[in-house]
Amino acid sequence: MAELFDGYHDNYRDVVQSSIDFSGLPHDFFMRAKADLLRELIAQRLGTERPDMLDVGCGVGSLHPLLHGMVGRLSGIDVSPASLSQARDHNHGVDYREFDGRNFPFADASFDLVTAICVMHHIVPAEWARFIAEMRRVTRPGGLVCVIEHNPYNPLTRLAVARCEFDRDAVLLGVGTTRKLMAASGLHEVGARHFLLLPWDTKPARRLEAALSGVWLGGQYAAFGTA
Ligand SMILES: C[S@@+](CC[C@H](N)C(=O)[O-])C[C@H]1O[C@@H](n2cnc3c(N)ncnc32)[C@H](O)[C@@H]1O
Question: If you take atom 10 of ligand 1, which residue's CA is the nearest one?
Fold first, then answer.
């Protein structure tokens, strides 16, 4: 897998953009929606205002400029050294570390918030439980684990995945599977929200999306649980 994403370190955004061009929306739109959702989860599910955060499979760090002022210490890990080098060039002050894809290079209970955004579909299913267990291990008691994934039930998501050259070997996992994996790892108050349903990021659109977040319609979902 390292070789796969090393090959996209300097054109990652362009490749993603070409797979979603049919939507008429820029890649930034999707990243802003994720940052907004994380802001809400921090407010609703964490007692701390600026949580220490680990972003697992952070790639070239596209999300990180949007997290300014939202999180405290920010760390990112990935199996792709070339992607991390790109991330470092664009995001000063973030602690980026390469790792083997299995053993997270941090002690138990190191972070308040641990995310994996569009990463699990690149991991073989036999490793999913271990991956979630590692996310939980490095999360402080009371902290939040959050997995954001493609919603396999959304036909436009399926189209985007089919058009994306680095998703050729992707194994999409539905929200039910992710929630079960989280509960089995010992996370509690496991919940989920679907988002990226509407092509606007106005307040009324976001409110409508929030009202429909329990319906399996959005392009992606966030599943989360408390450690
Ligand atoms: C589609 S990219 C998503 C990057 C970033 N999270 C984002 O949303 O822009 C998937 C990333 O997962 C990384 N990855 C693949 N297998 C991994 C593993 N076992 N552990 C951590 N990261 C992994 C890849 O190197 C790649 O950077």
Answer: 119
